[in-house]
Design goal:
It contains seven helices and five strands. By secondary structure, the chain is an alpha/beta fold. It has one domain.
C-alpha cells in the first residue's frame, strides 16, 4: 500500500508540501486548535465562520478545526439538508446581536473564523466588521493563529 501511495503521489507531493509552506500552515493550524482546546472546557461548542455547506462545498479548509481537535464540538461539518445545517444557514444571516443570542442559546461558547475564507466570501470590509463586533462583545479571550489566518473569540 505504501508503494501504491508513493506511486500515485511521488516526489511531486513532497515538493509541493515543501515549496508551498503547507507544513508550516499545518503546524500553525494544529497549534491554534490545541490552544483553543487548552483554553476551553471539554465538549465546548465552537461556531465556525464562514458557514459552508458540507459535503458539496469544494473547499475543506473549515475541516481544519474538526480534524485537529480531540475535545471540542464544532459547528462544521453539519450535513446539508439536516436540521443543524439548515439552522446554521438561517442564523448566520441574522443581525449580529440576534446571531450571537441564537448561537449562545444553542450552547455555543466561542466563534472560530477562517479569515481567508471569510474574506473570499464576504470581502475585507465585512471581515473587519465581524471581528470588530466580536472584539467588543467577547469575554476577553481572543486568540490568533501564528500565521494570522485564524482567529477565535470566546463569547
Amino acid at each position: 500500500m505504501i508503494l501504491a501511495v508513493y506511486d500515485q503521489t511521488g516526489r511531486g507531493l513532497v515538493d509541493y508540501v515543501k515549496n508551498h509552506g503547507e507544513l508550516e500552515k499545518y503546524h500553525s493550524d494544529h497549534e491554534f486548535v490545541v490552544e483553543i482546546e487548552n483554553s476551553m472546557p471539554p465538549q465546548a461548542m465552537i461556531f465556525i465562520l464562514p458557514f459552508s455547506k458540507f459535503p458539496e462545498f469544494d473547499m475543506y479548509q473549515e475541516l481544519v478545526a474538526y480534524v485537529n481537535s480531540k475535545q471540542l464540538r464544532w459547528s462544521y461539518p453539519a450535513i446539508s439538508g439536516r436540521e443543524s445545517s439548515n439552522w446554521q444557514e438561517v442564523v448566520v444571516n441574522l443581525e449580529f446581536k440576534k446571531f450571537i443570542a441564537e448561537i449562545k442559546k444553542a450552547g455555543f461558547v466561542g466563534i472560530y473564523i477562517d479569515r481567508n475564507q471569510y474574506r473570499e466570501k464576504f470581502g475585507f470590509v465585512k471581515l473587519n466588521e465581524i471581528e470588530k463586533s466580536l472584539r467588543l462583545y467577547s469575554k476577553g479571550l481572543v486568540l490568533v493563529s501564528k500565521n494570522k489566518k485564524l482567529v477565535f473569540f470566546k463569547i
